[in-house]
């Protein structure tokens, strides 16, 4: 089963601590230690950018945990510009095929734009279901 979550962070976040905040949210929603999540995000970032568009990022958290999923996060930068992070939490040894399908649905340009405007977990889940 794939876990699907949405959260909007109302506060402004400095770019140099965004990954730390994302890691805290991964801990809240997936129970993965924030330090481990941060290390995974930073390791993936060494391979290249996860920026899809100027205000849309795709951080990866690789884990050995069985629970996998996606976490859509909206937050604001210091210019009060809304930013979107679609966090993929994946078991690197045994990636879930359904997670791969969902990511394929979400990462087309039409759905990227829709994700930027999601305002609830229900809207996010509906977007995934409509693409199925």
UniProtKB/TrEMBL annotation:
Q: What sequence ranges are listed for the domain PTS EIIA type-2?
A: 2-130
* InterPro entries, per the entry: PTrfase/Anion_transptr (IPR016152), PTS_EIIA_type-2_dom (IPR002178)
In terms of SUPFAM superfamilies, this protein maps to: Phoshotransferase/anion transport protein
What domain of life? Bacteria
What protein name is recorded for this chain? Answer: PTS EIIA type-2 domain-containing protein
Q: Which species is this record about?
A: Pediococcus stilesii
